[in-house]
Design brief:
about 325 residues, alpha+beta, Profilin-like, 5-stranded mixed beta sheet
Length: about 325
């Protein structure tokens, strides 16, 4: 219809042609019309001719086709119309440059992964003289499992034809797992060396963890209302639960987290309110059994409550719940 309208304007069949014909002189619209003999009839960007390679590549038996030349930056969309063809031109140079940048970032992630593996090997040597075999194996299992996840996402980026958006999301997932390995290693070493951590220090670690998750569509607020040192048993629990929630939340299009950790009379309480949404903006709840299974072997009570808008998770110590009646 657009091409027919312009023809009417050109041959003075429509009043006010000067007003309407301005549409067909927009330089950025990149639209041309040729006849069946490939002669240029109309062009919105003042082209005098079209690429000969494109014209030679047109298949007259197809109603619609795309032609990409060797540089792969320009795509010609060819549609068959009455008496000829319409040709729209799309410049993909910006997208191609973004893909190159992501490939470079993938290379950086691979190098970071190698560094992480080296650090983990060095940590093993340190643990030999300081921890039991049972604890050492536990640490290895935790970190190696996360490293396997990093390798999985890295292989997806380098081995599969994914879009720029998918590459961006996968890189954000890798960032979450690398951050976990770094912080978890540090916390384990502190625990093994009988070091303590303040509420402010733990708050900084958790804020950095949430910040690493922002690119994965996760927004969060964290409040650690503890003025003195925190028992490392609770530090490890809260950190692992938050990481577990982040790993579950990356499957959704958008997530909001509100986390608060309180201490009163040596009694710790962890609250977490979660809102998860799909790509259509609908609220989703999928955490009930998954979260309970994740912490069922620990000496903590876990209570979950949810409605149509959010999920509330409360975690307390079984021993302290009993002692406090």
């Amino acid at each position: 219809m657009v091409y027919l309208l312009e023809v009417f304007i050109r041959i003075n069949l429509i009043p006010g042609k000067y007003y309407y014909s301005s549409f067909f002189k927009m330089e950025n619209s990149n639209l041309s019309v040729i006849d069946n003999d490939f002669n240029l009839i109309l062009s919105t960007n003042n082209l005098n001719s079209l690429n000969e390679e494109v014209l030679k590549s047109i298949n007259p038996n197809l109603k619609s086709q795309e032609i990409i030349l060797d540089n792969k930056d320009i795509v010609y969309k060819i549609d068959k119309i009455d008496g000829g063809y319409s040709i729209s031109i799309r410049d993909l140079s910006l997208i191609n440059n973004l893909i190159k940048q992501i490939n470079n970032k993938t290379s950086i992630i691979n190098r970071q992964n190698n560094i992480l593996l080296i650090e983990e090997e060095l940590s093993k040597k340190h643990f030999i003289n300081k921890v039991s075999t049972e604890l050492k194996n536990k640490v290895d299992n935790i970190l190696l499992k996360k490293i396997d996840e990093i390798n999985y996402f890295t292989e997806m980026i380098s081995g599969l034809p994914v879009s720029v958006y998918q590459d961006y999301r996968l890189l954000s997932y890798i960032k979450i797992y690398i951050g976990y390995c770094k912080n978890k290693s540090s916390l384990i070493l502190k625990e093994v060396n009988n070091q303590k951590i303040t509420g402010d220090d733990f708050s900084i670690i958790l804020h950095n963890t949430i910040q690493d998750s922002f690119s994965a569509g996760i927004n969060g607020q964290i409040f650690v209302n503890v003025s003195d040192y925190i028992d490392m048993k609770y530090v490890q629990l809260f950190f692992d639960v938050i990481q577990f929630l982040l790993e579950k939340c990356i499957r959704f299009n958008k997530t909001s987290l509100f986390i608060r950790i309180d201490k009163k009379d040596d009694f710790y309480t962890y609250y977490s309110i979660i809102d998860t949404y799909d790509e259509k903006g609908n609220f989703i709840f999928e955490f009930n059994d998954a979260l309970k299974n994740n912490i069922k072997d620990l000496n903590f009570n876990c209570h979950l409550a949810y409605d149509d808008t959010n999920i509330l998770i409360t975690i307390k110590s079984k021993e302290e719940v009993i002692e406090n009646g």
